[in-house]
Amino acid sequence: MLARAAAKVFQTLVVLIIVSIASFSLLKLAPGDPVVIMLGTEYSQESYDELRAQLGLDRPVAVQYLRWLGDFVTGDWGNSYVAKTDIFSFVVQEALPVTLTLTACAILLAIAVGVPLGVISAVRKDSGWDVGIAALALTGTAFPSFFLGIVLIWFFAVKVGFFPVMGFVPPWEDFWSGMLHLVLPAATLSTFFIGMIVRVTRAAMVEVLAQPYITAAIARGEPRRRVIWVHGFRNILMPLVTVIGLQLGAILQGAVLTETVFSLPGLGQMLTGAVLGREYVLVQAGVMLTATLFILVNLAVDLSYPFLDPRLRAR
Amino acid sequence: MQDHKAILSKHVAARLGRRSVLKGMGAGLFAATTGGALPGFAQVAQSGHMRIGAITPIDTLDPHFTFRLGSVQIISNICNGLLKVVYDGEKVSFEPDLAATWELEDEKTHAFTLHPNVKFHDGTDCDAEAIKFNLMRVKSGTPASPHAWKLAKLEEVEIIDPLTFKLHFSEPYAFLPVALTGSIGRAGTIVSPTAVKKFGDDFGRNPVGTGPFKFVSWQQNDSIELVANTEYFQAGLPKLERVSMMLIDEPSTALAALISGQIDGMNDCPMQLTEQVRKMPNLQIFGGVEGNYTYVGMNTQKAPFDDVNLRRAVAYAIDRDAVLRQAYFGLAKQAYTPISPPMTGFYDPAIAESGRGHSFDLEKAKEFRALAANQDEIEVTYIMTENPPAGTRVAQIVAPMLAQIGIKVKLELLENAAWTQRLQDRDFEMLDFFWTADLDPDETLFPEFKTGGSWNYWGWSNPEFDRLCTEAQVVLDVAERSKLYNQAEDLMIAEAPVAMLAHFPLYKIFSNKVQGFNYVPCDLLNLDTVSLA
């Protein structure tokens, strides 16, 4: 088991290095000179050269990469040349908590809504409930989040006035206000994910319910609720956790749109701004951070299997 | 010879004429306390926290380095200029701001006195030394300010005493009043020398001026916070206690927040939202056609638009009515030449009847097309991007119009940065773009069309045009100067490196709670006189 875990960690490191090279070179290949973008329409050749040298963009690409990787690992992420702030504190202390709070709320909401719906679907397979939930799940998965966000804003914030339209209030500073601000964005972000969880839960549960140990449990006369939530649920945890881990990428992607629509100062909005502004350093830091997050979460998912399923511990 | 101050003040006063102001101009206009008025240190009680959605990009709050009008809007609330733009509902004038008096000693020497006891937000004195520091920072500082050219003719700043100084210029300089304003001109904005030295490169994130509001903080993608300067030198101002500029990328989110009362205003409003805004009883809208122009630009350096007759054919083949209606929602004004409506002494209100400039005339277009060297169907690539104010709409409307004169347009949609790169590299055949001008014909025409000009993307060159514009730079008399610019414009129009399209409007919207806003038709958002009901 330990050897397997070590192998996983090693794989993760290799993937991280590949990601770092990819994110570094992708941006180099993208069109648009960052110096020109920064200087706008009015600039002289001198200010151009000076800025280029200042940013280290006149060095060989390999040097730029190694220098950047070294700095990244040591937490020296440099200064944003647009925002003129320290990127590490900007990204990690300001943007990251916003995105983590938003994604955590969205995932919790998706689980809280999706898992029971999926279980109901499986237990009442082929009933009206099942068909209705499947239709809802499909709609949720297919609905574009930016559009849903705008619809939610117009209805719940403008017409009804229940929730604020935009902005972020840290829940650790003002819990209720923070939660009120998070309701619409979290609902927007979790919609497609709810559909996904419903479908995975249903499929896994249907399979589990057909297993002999379930039949045996029912035959023993155990209460139905206990059969489903203890014997059944325990066995769908693995596919469920796997999906949540894998879908984290999609959630982070959805966060970009959600943060823009609701004007939340998170990683997604920071990244789009940085991409549009050709802020090399900031994009690289943002991509590396989100990729690292994604990869680490999936490593955690991998490592959690033996705890979720005792049968794997023997190997 | 006429008194130069009279000429210059006439010149600056004539800049902007009657403007179509949509609403709210009845609000008590702030009669500027200029010309030796004593500074007031009356401790007025400020109240109210105003939140404004800022939907336009903000690059830096360092006035001498910003490229964005979204930044200038905020800087103008933190800093003062030597002069300021004042609008009385009919015309714009350039009046002393930090300066108490402004005299012309002779054609090339301007004498200023400052208001006494004016302090920067960091407590240091705003005296003649500080002014000199600022002007020299723009003129010859390192790194070089993009606005340095505006003070290129400044030879010396002579300090007489802490409140008196003279500016010596190498020749008469007609553009000066605009350059010295603390807003659009940017070169005359005065910041604290102590703070510049203290913050260095970070000054743009920590601006310190003398203005009605002090800078508090700038949270990226979140908000910029300002608080009232209780020791502001203009008596009784500002009226608000706090201002938050909420940084919002998505205009429809900002509008929803405004309607639901989460914010009190927006610093801009896309044209497509204005109709909806007008239907909202709790919102007020300010705005009108400002100093700018849009056009279809052609690369005169390579085929097929190295052929002047083909360019002329394009210039007359575009149905402006259709463009104005469909691309600008009927809110813009047709542009015959670059000089825009707000530049009153220079703009001819009857230009539509004058026969000058570009307009739609399909017969004329076909005549020019018949003169073109290439009589076959010509295929051109037109690069487009989501630029303000009309995005890709212009390209899509213009393309079928050019098919009528045998030009087959291939539209190529580019991401903004790629598009900008192609523009800078002159790697295009055709595109459309806009120019926002500093309310003076020089900045409107010369850098865009002079031989080798940094914004002359068209590669167009006409020595006579260059000569006329150079001559006009040192002429202070408006009528005489205007004549020179009209001649220069006619040369450009005749050879059509660009086909003129429109002068477009800019808007600000507020909730009805907002009172006392003075609209100035150059995208300013001055909050000193604003209060919340």
Describe the structure in brief.
With 315 residues, chain A is mostly helical. Chain A is built from twelve helices and no strands. Chain A has two domains: 72 residues, no CATH class; 216 residues, MetI-like fold, CATH 1.10.3720.10.
Tell me the span between the first and last alpha carbons of chain A: 6 Å
> Whole-number average pLDDT of chain A?
84
Uncertain runs of chain B: 1-42
Classify the beta-strand content of chain B into a percent band: 15-25%
Helix count from the secondary structure assignment of chain A = 12
How would you name the CATH homologous superfamily of the largest domain in chain B? Periplasmic binding protein-like II
- Record field, number of beta strands of chain A: 0
User: Which CATH class of the largest domain in chain B applies here?
Assistant: Alpha Beta
Main location (chain A): membrane
Keywords (chain A): Cell membrane, Membrane, Transmembrane, Transmembrane helix, Transport
GO molecular function (chain A): dipeptide transmembrane transporter activity
Organism (chain A): Cereibacter changlensis JA139
Question: Which key phrases capture this entry?
Answer:
heterodimer, A: 315 residues, mainly alpha, MetI-like fold, 2 domains, B: 533 residues, alpha+beta, D-Maltodextrin-Binding Protein, domain 2, Dipeptide-binding Protein, domain 3, 16 helices, 23 strands, Peptide ABC transporter substrate-binding protein (chain B)
